[in-house]
Amino acid sequence: MFLMRMISTRDESKEERSYTDVLLAGLAPDGGLYVPSEYPQFSLEELEKLRRLPYRDIAFAVKKKLVQGDIPDRDLHALIHAAYSETAFGDVASGNIVPLMKVEDGFYVQQLSLGPTAAFKDMALLVLAQEMQYELSRRGEHLTILGATSGDTGSAAEAAFKGLDRVQLFMLSPENGMSAFQKAQMGSFSGQNIFNVSVRGRFDDCQDLVKRLKGQKEFSKLGAVNSINWGRISSQVPYFVSGYLQAVRSVGDPVDFAVSTGNFGNVLSGYIAKRMGVPIRRLVVATNENDVLDRLFKTGVYRLSPARVTSSPSMDISKASNYERLVFDVFGGDSKKTAAYMQEFETNKKVDLADYGVAVSQLHNLGFESGSSTHADRLEAIRSVYAKAKIVIDPHTADGVSVGWRCKDVSEDVPMVCMGTALPVKFEDTIKEALGFVPERPARFVGLEDTLAANAFYSIDADAEQLGKYIREHATERG
Ligand SMILES: *Cc1c(COP(=O)(O)O)cnc(C)c1O
């Protein structure tokens, strides 16, 4: 049987790993990211056949190609059904859980946030958690995961791993900086295998603590669930396939996607769908005021810049980790060149593609375009979408819509699909500012803030010793 071969972007020896090895490893030991050595392909006939299937079956068909037999088909099918379950999605679970919402002719928002924590990160983390649980029990192992979050990732990971007996999840979050909604949402998952740790400090302090702890021998085996995990990236490809199939009149026609981005994870999955043969024409990279990626796609210069706090906080980043996977592709799979480029970035906080013989036009030839939006742009996008279609979008989706509108070529008949990355209920203050009212909450979130239990978070200083002690006392010795 042909097994999926995964290689590190920085490994010159091109040592091959399996899908599940990479799933459990996260980052490669050389600091690179895992990518497939080649992309499996979809023919138009195959895509046509997917068109009438429920989302779970589309997800299975796409993942099957990316997992390439490393998990037997029957098991993979069951894992995807367990991920997109009635418990997670209610009675829509067996149908289309990533529907297109029409804003106007040829302009859509794809709803990716119907999962348990109301953000698109559910789509990937639910599958990742099932696959990890499966693989750990196949190997007779257990895993303790340590992560840091400023919001959406933490709750999505906790919802996905809650109750899975092979994994214990310790999640650090800053004491201040998260909304009452986010805090209550995370707090609601505490207990069993989920440990919420509140750090007296900022998000950077949390990330720092994770790094410091993993640097210690005793904790070097702690796992991770951040967005560079290939399991997450690959589980986002299916909704681009579904969005494509929903948007076109005939399979084979082009579609443009606009994707609000932070760590370059979501839009990279769109690029992979394109590489797998889905006729996606343009991929519009939409940033907020933290416009590292917009400047990169306009000038070819990738420059670290301190993150500013905005009204689309899940996109407030200073660098975009997943971009390395695109660099590797643009360099034709040259890992030596990729490693040198990333090394220059890490040393100088800045690197220019031109110095590596790549013109910006090459990025455009791959389909990439970019733009950034301001708080005022987001408010305007929220208002326009509401005025045109009575749909309330969240501020992150608004970044994509704002830039998507700017990049839409009205002379052409190519649909533009903007990714809906969160529900507005998570960011009510900005919605109120834009529309003057707050939309009715989905029933499961009504009164959520009042449910925060006093002991849902364990508080520590930004101190590795306190964290180590807590994990030592609570992680069960197993496996
Ligand atoms: C994480 C997140 C993003 C950014 O996604 P990336 O994969 O990091 O590009 C955008 N919107 C929301 C609501 C998010 O939670």
User: Hetero groups bound?
Assistant: pyridoxal-5'-phosphate
Distance between the termini: 30 Å
Rg:
21 Å
Instruction: Based on Cα principal axes, name the global outline.
Output: globular
Describe the structure.
The protein is an alpha/beta fold and 479 residues long. The protein has a domain at 100-116 and 231-435: Rossmann fold (3-Layer(aba) Sandwich), CATH 3.40.50.1100. The protein contains 19 helices and 14 strands. It has a 6-stranded mixed beta sheet, sandwiched between helices. A 4-stranded parallel beta sheet has the order 5-6-7-14, with helices on both faces. Helix 6 (121-139) crosses helix 7. The longest helix is centred in the N-terminal third of the chain and has 19 residues, at 121-139. The model has no long low-confidence stretch (mean pLDDT 94). Residues 119, 121, 152, 227, 260-266, 314-315, 396, 421-422 line the site of pyridoxal-5'-phosphate (PLP).
List the helices and strands and how they pair.
Layout (H helix, E strand, L loop, with lengths): L5 E3 L10 H7 L8 E3 L7 H7 L4 H13 L5 H11 L2 H4 L10 E5 L2 E5 L9 H19 L3 E6 L3 H10 L5 E8 L5 H8 L6 E7 L2 H12 L15 H18 L7 E6 L4 H11 L4 E8 L4 H8 L1 E3 L19 H8 L4 H14 L1 E3 L7 H6 L2 E5 L2 H15 L5 H13 L8 E5 L7 H8 L21 E5 L2 H11 L5
Parallel strand pairs: 4-13, 5-6, 6-7, 7-14, 8-9, 8-13, 9-12
Antiparallel strand pairs: 1-2, 3-4, 10-11
Helix pairs in contact: 3-4, 3-10, 4-6, 6-7, 6-10, 10-11, 16-17, 16-18
Pyridoxal-5'-phosphate binds next to helix 11.
Features:
479 residues, alpha/beta, Rossmann fold, six-stranded mixed sheet, four-stranded parallel sheet, binds pyridoxal-5'-phosphate
